[in-house]
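Hi R.,

Here's the input for the S-adenosylmethionine complex you asked about:
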Amino acid sequence: MELWYTEKQTPYLGITCLIQETLCHFKTPYQDLAVLDTRQFGRMLVLDGMVMTTEKDEFVYHEMLAHVAMQAHPCPQHVLVIGGGDGGVIREVIKYDTVETATLVEIDAAVVEAAKKYLPTIASGFSDPRVKVVIEDGIKYLQQARGQYDVILIDSTEPVGPAVGLFSAEFYHSVYRALKKDGLMVAQTESPFFNRDLIAGVNRHLQRIFPLTKLYLASIPTYPSGLWSFTAASKCYDPQACREKPVETKYYNFSVHHSSFSLPNFVRELVEQKP
Ligand code: SAM
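And here is the predicted structure with S-adenosylmethionine in place:
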């Protein structure tokens, strides 16, 4: 008998994967957590029924969320990741020798533990001495932070439950305050096919707070619609400017960095500042 896992990405569309084994499945204080071994994508972390990351395509998302910012900033020393409990983004951040501290603020300790146990290739960065994991709400954590970080990466779940506030203007103001005077942030901002209002709203917020805001794209097969957006906001450096610092990657490279900011018309219209 075959067992299939289906994520309903919209009320009318889903992705379905053949399951070889359910490695764990339980309720944390924040969400329903499962790690499934799928035939197509290997091990898959699922939170509240939504695919978070898989062994086979995680490199696209984690590299594109981390390296655009880490290459746009000339010397990122202190980096903060909000969310990202699977460890994939932190693993990419610590590839840079300039990094002195990499702090991960994840609200749900169970995600970190499950990643360490079942997704060791994604969670490999947690053992680096520069990495500090703080189990706290990222919204609360940022309230007292002032001018501490060169780069802040927001690797949150979709805007549901504890992640809703991570897409608000108030939160982005706290990110601005937590960044140094030449700092920059990148947030994952969902699908240009299914989350158009969210992308437009986030860009409106960020355009009011930061002098430079740019959106870029990557293709991620297991995310809704397969096309994913990232919104970069910077106090000074152009996020599209790549300093070509050598780094080992599978998806990201210097020409992808630049070209990922070239937007198709149906996406460009979401972020063009309205006069
Ligand atoms: N790449 C995934 C995506 O695009 O949906 C996100 C992966 S990561 C597992 C998302 C993490 O954000 C989850 O572990 C979740 O617990 C965490 N999270 C959600 N709201 C949060 C908050 N307010 N503060 C800190 N972490 C939060």
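One thing worth noting: The two ends are 58 Å apart (CA to CA).

Cheers,
M.
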